[in-house]
Design brief:
The structure holds 2 protein chains of 2 kinds. Chain A has 3 helices and 13 strands. By secondary structure, chain A is mainly β. Chain A has one domain: Aromatic compound dioxygenase (Protocatechuate 3,4-Dioxygenase, subunit A, Sandwich). In chain A, the strands form 4 sheets. Chain A has a 4-stranded mixed sheet, with no helix packed on it. Chain A has a 4-stranded antiparallel sheet with strand order 5-4-9-10, with no helix packed on it. In chain A, strands 1-13 form a two-stranded antiparallel sheet. In chain A, strand 7 and strand 8 form a beta hairpin. In chain A, 40% of the residues are buried. Chain B has a single domain, classed as Sandwich (Protocatechuate 3,4-Dioxygenase, subunit A), CATH 2.60.130.10. Chain B contains no helices and 12 strands. In chain B, strands 3, 6, 9, 10 and 11 form a 5-stranded mixed sheet that branches. In chain B, a hairpin with a 2-residue loop joins strand 1 and strand 2. Chain B is globular. Classes of the chains: A mainly beta, B mainly beta. At the A-B interface, helix 1, strand 2, helix 2, strand 10 and strand 12 of A face strand 4, strand 5, strand 7, strand 8 and strand 12 of B. Strand 2 of chain A pairs parallel with strand 12 of chain B.
Chain lengths: 232, 168
């Protein structure tokens, strides 16, 4: 199968330098990015990435005496390409903070407490239909250090591999109805309101979900589509 | 035909799990098999504006095997490393062969807190004619500096000596 990756639509993607997010102006290149033709190196990618990156179990919440604190949630994320075709076998990494807003990471210096029962990251392989499912707890909001009152709304980090090298997607998923969503510098760096709305998960009807867990559904669209057939 | 807009990319954040970044920076062995070719090390420092080194930057690479093939089942041409507190990453790999019409090269992808989109660049081994390298203004910055079996490839995200990046 051959794939093509078309240029990004700037309305649906963030600019490099974002107002209210100081790090972007120290790290995004000042020189214009160079447009290049795509070759095999860009339009191929590793098959069976789990040969290098082993998957984990699909449960961060634990059970019984080992249950993490917080609202139990069930994430149901689907990986599709730009044709809307599911990407079975896609590797998906997921990480988020605990129900007090603390990450399981040595660089998180906030004084929010760690939760000994919360292991904050998972690596999953999409099944048929491009679906990954994760049982976890809802992350909390937290204040960003050294800013003038910037609070991150509850969010979940995703790192996804798609069809080819250029399909790589790193993004964040937000929760519906959170008042902090309207003020977050990262979410609002996406200018198109519809593209922004697609970064917010949907709460599934509660009657259909597993016991005691709220189900959130989300779609991850990776770059790339089937290459058009060329007429001779 | 319908086309879905790709999901908006967002920053990796400062707390990318350390364990995710470990165990994937040696490309010379996969499933117990040793790849054919010349073993090399690639290392460099990732810095921001004013030259400050950056900790926990995720660097991913994708390359052809020693014969210039991307689909060799006995060579896994993908790897990942994260920088340490002094901004340094390193890979152990095989020197890639020449892919038809291209100089030997390795694609690099950089993910980090403060990068709202992934950054793409390419490392070359020599300053020779290449249809992509020829498009770049400061092309010597994409040519690694050789020190024995070690190739040094620093990544300056912004500022003096800024690495050229691609818009894919």
């Amino acid at each position: 199968m051959s794939w093509s990756v078309e240029p990004r639509d700037p309305r649906t993607q963030s600019e490099g330098v974002v107002a209210g997010y100081a790090h972007t102006a120290r790290r995004w290149p000042s020189q214009p990015l160079v447009v290049r033709p795509h070759d095999t190196g860009e339009l191929s990618g590793p098959a069976k990435l789990e040969r290098r990156l082993p998957p984990s179990k699909a449960d961060l919440a634990g059970r019984g005496a080992n249950r993490a604190l917080g609202q139990l949630i069930h994430l149901r994320a689907r990986v599709v390409d730009e044709d809307g075709a599911p990407v079975p076998g896609a590797l998906v990494e997921i990480w988020h903070c605990n129900s007090a807003g603390k990450y399981l990471h040595p660089n998180d210096s906030s004084d929010s407490p760690p939760d000994p029962n919360f292991h904050g990251n998972a690596r999953l392989i999409a099944g048929d239909g491009g679906l990954v499912e994760l049982r976890t707890i809802k992350p909390a909001a937290y204040a960003v250090p050294d800013t003038d009152g910037w609070w991150r709304p509850p969010h979940v980090h995703f790192s996804v591999w798609g069809r080819v090298w250029l399909s790589r997607l790193v993004t964040q998923m937000f929760f519906p109805g959170d008042p902090l969503n309207d003020h977050d510098a990262i979410l609002n760096a996406v200018r198109d309101p519809e593209a922004r709305a697609r970064c917010i998960a949907r709460l599934a009807p509660t009657a259909r979900g597993p016991a005691n867990a709220l189900v959130y559904e989300y779609q991850l669209v990776v770059r790339g589509r089937k290459a058009a057939l060329r007429m001779p | 035909m319908t086309r879905l807009a790709p999901t908006a990319e967002m920053t990796l954040g400062p707390f990318f799990p350390r364990e995710f970044a470990q165990g994937a920076n040696d490309l010379t062995v996969i499933s117990g098999k040793r790849a054919e070719g010349e073993v090399i090390e690639i290392t460099g420092r990732v810095t921001e504006l004013d030259g400050k080194p950056l900790d926990n930057v995720v660097v991913e690479i994708w390359q052809a095997d020693a014969k210039g093939r991307y689909d060799n089942p006995d060579f896994f041409g993908w790897g990942r490393a994260a920088t340490d507190a002094s901004g340094v990453y390193s890979f152990k790999t095989i020197r890639p062969g020449q892919v038809q019409g291209r100089a030997p090269h390795i694609n690099f992808l950089i993910l980090y807190s403060g990068l709202m989109r992934q950054l793409q660049t390419t490392m070359f081994f020599e300053r020779i004619a290449d249809p992509v390298l020829d498009l770049v203004k400061n092309r010597e910055r994409l040519v690694a500096k050789r020190e024995g079996a070690v190739y040094r490839f620093d990544l300056r995200l912004r500022g003096d000596g800024e690495t050229p990046f691609f818009d894919d």
